[in-house]
Amino acid sequence: MYYLGRGLGVPIAMEGALKLKEIAYIHAEAYPAGESKHGPIALIEKDFPVLFIVLSDENSENILGNIMEMKARNALTIGLIPEDFKKFEEILDYSIKMPTHNYILAPITYTPILQLLAYYTAVKRGYDPDKPRNLAKTVTVE
Questions:
Q1: CA 50, 119, 72: angle at the middle one, nearest 5?
Q2: Which of 65, 70, 66 is nearest to 48 (CA)?
Q3: Could you give the C-alpha distances from 38 to 44, 59, 103, 125, in angstroms and in order?
Q4: How far lies 115's CA from each of 26, 93, 98, 111, 122, in Å?
Q5: FRET partner for 15 with CA separation of 20 to 30 A, picked from 91, 109, 111, 135?
């Protein structure tokens, strides 16, 4: 699965891909959407899932082009989009409407949705998201 974003959407995409790997054990990679034509797009085939992080910023029109590129290759497109982005909703296969606000707040609102996506994917696959395998704690207790 790919998670694609532009600008501040890239680190949000990275967190989403990381959580999906950690608890649902699905290979996921995050990329800047503008870089997706330089390698990642070669793996796109029918129903390959691509999740887009769409923010209310100057990058929204450019990411629309990235969505169209993936749709042209029959990818399954999913987007976290601002609630007033009707054009995106019509193009994406699935969309999750997010509150429209200053894009700088997006990590606060978008990240929990991606964490929940990973959580419910893990549960659906029969894994316990509270006990991820092979992960070391980042804080040790002495």
A1: 10
A2: 70
A3: 12, 19, 27, 32
A4: 14, 20, 15, 6, 11
A5: 91
Residue identified by tokens 């509270």 is 130
Cβ contact 78:95 at 8 Å: yes
Give the pair of three-digit tokens for residue 88.
């995106």
Superfamily for 2-124? Glucose-6-phosphate isomerase like protein; domain 1 (3.40.50.10490)
Tell me which residue has tokens 């796109």: 44
